Amino acid sequence: MSLREAFRVAMQALVANRLRSALTTLGVVIGVLSVVLLVAIGQGAREEITGAIEGLGSNLLFVLPGDGDFGSAPARARFVAEDVDDLEAALPAGEGRRAAGYVVGGEQISADGARITTSVYGITAGYGEVVDREVARGQAFTASDVLTARRVALIGATTAQVLFAGSDPIGRNLTVGGIRFRVQGVLAEVGGTPFGPDRDDEVLVPLGAGQRLFGVSTLDAIFVRATDTTTVEADRTIIERVLGQRLAEDEFTVLSQDEIIGVVGDILQILTLVLAAIAGISLLVGGVGVSNIMLVSVTERTREIGLRKALGARTRDITRQFLLEAIVLTGLGGVVGLLLGIALARLAEAVSPLTAVVTWWSVALALSVSVGVGLLFGVLPARRAGQLDPVEALRRD
Amino acid sequence: MSDPPDAGGDVPVLLEARDVVRTYRLGSRRGEDPVEVHALRGVSFEVDRGDYVAIVGSSGSGKSTLLNLLGALDRPTTGVVRYDGQDVRSMDDRELAALRNGSIGFVFQSFHLLPRLTALDNVQLPLVYRASTVKERRVRALDALGSVGLADRVDHRPTELSGGQQQRVAIARALVTEPPLLLADEPTGNLDTTTGGEVMALLERFHRERGMAVVVITHEPDIAARADRRIELRDGLVLSDTRRDVGGGR
User: Beta strand A173-176 with A99-111: parallel, antiparallel or unpaired?
Assistant: First the structure.
């Protein structure tokens, strides 16, 4: 029997049992749909987050506490404000400041009777320049603001909206952890990500004021901006030399932006694969359903199989017919599931803050796995059909 | 070697059964000795090209078993079934399929038409299992349906046809491959006498016009009486093998 003929016979059989075929396919549809959708969302998260890191500005070097092993307990930061000054002095001069540091904590903010809890950053004077954080309205911190730890604040666009409900916040007062600050500027909107903190909802205060709020005298991290990509490694050497004079080697780590993106990207990639694997289980269950219904189909059509054998069908003709039926069933489910998955990914993007990116590999994986599932779970019923004894099969009523 | 009953040229006889024994083992439950059922105990006969043979016997005489063996659907426990001198037992799955497809046309008591398919598609079915083009299959199937008088029913499904029409579709399916042998198992069993007579007349016409050998298995004396030769089975053995005289009735 030609493949084309076998395909025609398989389609006839599937159409003859429309409802059953549709319900059987549904299992595969749901499996493929969830693989495509979850991978798209995982992939979207990855691009979103790496994009957010890139959004901090290009050619950044991150100086973090600890030896860089993310598996161990978080190290206590031992950076101080003087480290930033030392770095600024040691690094070749560029446009504006090159080094900045911050200390961060969560605090209760209130103004005009509104009360929220958000992140408060105590920053050095260069912070805005180094991480591309512009002030949209009002005044950025001056060196003396920071030096004298004045109680002034810059607030994010969302924070301004929530606390002051549309009225101009500049010059107004708010309290951070019970201490009063005067708002002197509103930060430019950067657009939030659905993951991690909303960067438009934060309060920046001078470093000294922040340290007093949190009761520390250290910095949580330092950023250094390289003048361009080629100087990143030279700057790294300088940073390591300067900080190494006071700190032990395992007390700080210098990471380039690319390295951070790589690490975070890897973590999210693994997360995506785990999601895909969990979704894959439902695909497997769908495959068992196909196997089950194919066995029923073989039993029902025992007489047909006997007749076909009497008319000259070889064992492999029958096997192929049923195998093809299973593959058409799951392949169809794969295509439908794929289309639904893409549609749902679009929908998720439209109605939620999630980003969904349908990747070619999830599409290829979903289709090949669904056909593979048909092959795998079709083999048993198909072999059983092929090996039926024609005498027994014809006798069956 | 020296005592064949036939005139014995180079051409081997169409179908030959020699000392055919078929034993079924029943009751294979663990710990029990299987019961052996001797369906055929040593049957020998030959069917030559153009023969018209009726195989008769009461139920349990081994008729159905013999039909399965003659149709190459089953293999004998001992003994030999040969087509054109080829031993069925030595054939593999592919050769058996080719034999059933090319040399034997089956007609069953319950027609065995596929209900989903139209008459035309049912008739085409054997051609699907051999090298053929769609067009060629269609032409041959239409031709076969025409020769059984159903040219106006090609697009009907079995449920839309009467019993006699269904059996005629089945006959068209059996002869669409132009096999040298038609094997009919109680072909009139599900039909009334008149329709049954028409179906038999149709088989006889192809026997006459195309020289096909026809083997009919039946328990109806009327049907058996129409054949040129009558083989009677009893308890798995050939009781008699008589050829009708050329001049008159049996």
Answer: antiparallel
Using CA coordinates, name the residue in chain A closest to B183. A310
A392 part of contact set with chain B, CB < 8 Å: no
Q: At the topology level of CATH, where does B51-75+92-242 sit?
A: Rossmann fold (3.40.50)
Helix and strand numbers (H, E) in chain B are 7, 10
**Domain map (residue ranges) of chain B:** 51-75+92-242
Using CA atoms, how far apart are residues B191 and B54, in angstroms rounded to an integer?
18
Provide the shortest C-alpha distance from residue B16 to chain A (in Å). 19
Q: Which residues of A touch B68 (CB under 8 A)?
A: 391
**Which single residue is written with the structure tokens 């579709």?**
B169
pLDDT digits (tens, 9 = 90+) for A307-332: 999 999 999 999 999 999 999 999 99
The C-alpha angle with vertex A391 and arms to A386 and A393, in degrees rounded to 5, equals 55
The answer to whether the CB of B56 falls within 8 A of the CB of B231 is yes
**Which residues are B182's β-sheet partners?**
B105, B214
pTM: 0.73
A·B CB contacts under 8 A: 58
Q: Are B108 and A12 an interchain contact pair (Cβ–Cβ within 8 Å)? A: no
Q: Which residues of A344-382 are buried (b: 16+ CB within 10 A; e: fewer)?
A: bbeebbeeeebbbbbeeebbebbbebbbbbbbbbbbebb
Q: Based on the number of CB atoms within 10 Å of its own CB, is A90 exposed (0-12), middle (13-18) or buried (19 or more)?
A: middle
ipTM score? 0.90
Task: Quote the CA–CA distance of B89 and B135 in Å, as a whole number.
Answer: 35
Q: Give the pLDDT confidence of A65-122 residue by residue, as tens digits.
A: 887 666 566 667 789 989 999 998 888 877 778 899 999 999 999 888 888 999 999 9
DSSP secondary structure letter of residue B230: E
Q: How many CB atoms lie within 10 A of CB A140?
A: 17
- Residue B239: C-alpha distances to residues B68, B71, B247 (Å): 19, 21, 24
Cα-Cα-Cα-Cα dihedral sign, residues A161, A166, A168, A172: negative
